[in-house]
Amino acid sequence: MEGSSVHTLARWCSRHRFVVLGGWVGAVVVLIGLVVGMGSNFKTIADLPNSESSHAYTLLGTSATSTETGRIVWHTTGQSVDTAQVRADVSSMLNKVASLPDVKAVQSPYTAGDAAQLNVGQNTAYANVTVTHGVNVDQVQKVAQSIENSDLQVEIGGQAFAPKTKSGGIAEVVGIVAALLILLLMFRSAWAAALPIVTGVAGVATSLLFVMVGSHFVNLSSDSITLGSLIGLGVGIDYALFVVNRHRKALTAGASVTEAIQEAVNTSGRAVIFAGLTVIAALLAMVVVGMGVLTGMGQAAAVTVLFTVLAAITLLPALLSILGLRVLSKRQRRRLLGQETTPAATRRKRPRRTPAGLWAALVTRFPRPMATLALIVLAALAVPVLAMRVGEADASSDPAHSTSRQYYELISPAFGKGIDATLILVAETPDAGSAQALNTLAKNLPSVPDIASVSAPIPARDGVQVIQVTPSSSAGAKATVNLVDHLRNDIIPTATAGSHLKVDIGGETASNIDIAHALMSKLPLYLALVALLGFLLLALAFRSLLLPLVGAVSNLATIAVALGVLTAIFQWGWASKLLSVGDGAPISYIVPVMIVGVMFGLSMDYQVFLISRMHEEWTHTHDNTRSIRVGLTETTKVIATAAVIMLCVFSSFGFSGQRVVSSIGIGLALAVVVDAFVVRMVLVPALMRMIGNRVWAYPRWADRITPRLAVEGPSPDTTGTRPVSVLVGAAEAETHADVLVGAAEADTHADVLVGAAEAETHADVLVGAAHYASPAPAGQHWQRNR
Q1: Is-contact 152 80, C-beta < 8 A?
Q2: CATH topology for the 3-37+167-337+360-390+514-701 domain
Q3: How much of the chain exceeds pLDDT 90, in percent?
Q4: Contacting residues for 625 by C-beta, under 8 A, at least 6 apart
Q5: Using CA atoms, how far apart are residues 430 and 464, in angstroms rounded to an integer?
């Protein structure tokens, strides 16, 4: 990330703008051609951790993903479910289902030996349907419900027919439109507002096409597309926003278009690269969890972030070069070209105190009360995380109008809530004694609390028998998790004692429980890894020990808030119905890891943009209070805007109707807002003010061995004619260094600092009236620079 190379890249992209634009368009065309020709090859990845349930699948000589089983359930009104007419109609329908592609077998209750699938008292019956993963669920549902009438209701459900995750929709479009409106309000220019959207969408679209092609070479879940677009849109728009914002400020300060592009990419663009790499590192670090589905999702999301970074530092400069001064508002262009003047009578002798400046002054003046207030808010939002339960939601918590919920409400009164939570006890019986012990276990199991029914031992192959246990509760219920733990820790060890009998509990429900246990055991390691990564990266960037420590701890606080909010909304069900995802249910095992990885990266983004401005000020003044005030004042507006845009984009995915996607979208949306407005704008600056100058201290021995990494490089001296920005005796200036030494009556009061990274209003600071007694209008500066 050398300054010269970044500077050179920016200059090349601006000068060869149509080559860069053509390269991106060409890449998209090529990728579209590959996708059309090859298609995608997403897979349902369920490589279980080394667990009891995975051993059970091994004993059976099968896998968790070879086939799936679903059910077709029917209920009659006014006639018995066992009448000849119902039998004939249903049997005909089941034969049609059996003939559909990817349907391997259909087990009817009207076949001898399958009477357990028939409840005459409740006039309800069901058929088991074994299918492969490519089955057309809509087609199966259409055939199954073709026999429905006023006296016969038919529904489909179970693992094979569970609702699939979908992406795209009106909610996402609304989120992007809302982001566009916010940008328009901020920039007052349609072109400037559109650029972050265009750049973000271009980066995401290209990356998703790349991921679709990559699915032929890497095991990826189809959910990777949805999650990649969710993460990519949010960070892509924000990254472009930072660059466009810096570019516009350079233009209004008198730089030419090319010079402004170079300055924006060499400063904010460098911070974008650094922030993007931290997000990518956090996503790739998901490999430590040891689950293929999460590793694949992390890799796909990392690719998306990489493309959004590339778009921000290559495509965006090219587009900025093409648009020229049109990225400014009409009023800014008139001022820049010297076509608008300010009457002398209306000139302010004191700079305007902005809301951001007032807020920065408040935080730095009362750091202890502000930090205390921020910690109270964070603690209140994070408390629910203590009750978080990781697992998989089942049909009992699906939305009331959904097919899966209607299926559950039809089948559960007749066959119990745990009908789809069947546990498979796989037993190794190498001798007669172990076989006898298994029979004894089967007889005793019905007396165990929370067990609804138990089948007799069924031979699976030589030396292996299977018992099917149906819990009284649904798969996602806490009681079912407790039942599995009770069987494994108490019942089965007692039954196998003194024999060679070995029993493993398998099945989908047990597998989900094992995955949840494995995840929660690895989550602390993942948290520690991302916290350490954040500490090291911030130490490299800002050459401090206490500052990275504050950043790492505050990042963990944001993550705790995200998981706490998710627990309240989706597990306790406080707002899950409003989001059309049904009732409260356990948090999917995918969600905590994705939240940790993505929020770490986003928190680092805001930390980098905030602290880089403070560090720039500290380098020149060595005044901690002033550095905090200046940095907070000059970055508040852009960080707040970025956070609100993230809120719009992420929360739009919250209305997708898919529990996992909605959980991640809402969790990220609320966490980003809390991170920006509570952690970065209150807690971090307040703690830095309380610590004092020591926050910037760095041991000499560490300074000698640590490589130097400039996150936000100095603005290049491209003009040779622009007045130098200086800080002279302005340690306590009220509005982030508005200093006019010997030029009290200058036409334009300037927010000045060396480098002026994020100044609200860029003008020329005059050092000594002797050299600049009559400052040139901004338009003249621009013309000279051109």
Answers
A1: no
A2: Multidrug efflux transporter AcrB transmembrane fold (1.20.1640)
A3: 45
A4: 364, 689, 731
A5: 8
